[in-house]
Design a protein that fits this description.
Blueprint lengths: L3 H10 L1 H11 L1
């Protein structure tokens, strides 16, 4: 289960990093 507080905190700090990881998966 995702910790949404941690997830949104990471998303706020690393939006490009997260998108790059997402693109790698798809």
């Amino acid at each position: 289960m995702i910790d949404y507080v941690l997830f949104t905190f990471y998303l706020a700090l690393h939006p490009q990093n997260l998108m790059a990881s997402y693109c790698d998966y798809t």
